[in-house]
């Protein structure tokens, strides 16, 4: 398994990024940040995850907040795993959002 450490800007380890079976990066979040520069780094606690979607992760050593943003590939994989009826609902929602955007754009254009 391919693992890459994911840390805050102060180099505290927040978790590891691993590639799942389809080569898509997933964040395996540690329960607590680990200071790897400490003389005796704490044992890595149970991991929470894998994280999907987007989520701000706060380092509990220095308080730095780092956003985790899943790749489009990861989101696509999630969507491909949905049932047919969930896909239909998702598609309807995306279309509605798109229509709302177009409507807003048109009403804005009218006032210019
Ligand atoms: Zn930190």
How is the main sheet built? Answer: 4 strands, antiparallel
By secondary-structure content and strand pairing, the structural class works out as: alpha+beta
Our count of domains comes out at 2
Distance between the termini: 55 Å
Question: What hetero molecules are in the model?
Answer: zinc ion
Per DSSP E runs of 2 or more residues, the count of β-strands stands at 6
- Order of adjacent strands in the largest pleated sheet: 1-2-3-4
Strand content: 25-35%
Helix content: 25-40%
Helix and strand element order: EEEEEEHH
Q: Using the CA coordinates, give the radius of gyration.
A: 20 Å
Would you identify the regions where 5 or more consecutive residues have pLDDT less than 50?
none
Specify the overall morphology: elongated
Average pLDDT works out at 85
Overview of the structural elements:
- There is one protein chain.
- This protein has 112 residues and is of the alpha+beta class.
- Helix content is 32%, strand content 35%.
- It folds into 2 domains: 3-81, no CATH class; 83-112.
- It has helices at 72-80, 84-110; strands at 3-7, 12-19, 25-35, 47-51, 54-58, 65-69.
- The chain has a 4-stranded antiparallel beta sheet, with no helix packed on it.
- The chain starts with a strand and ends with a helix.
- Residues 8, 10, 12, 33, 59, 61-62, 64 line the site of zinc ion (ZN).
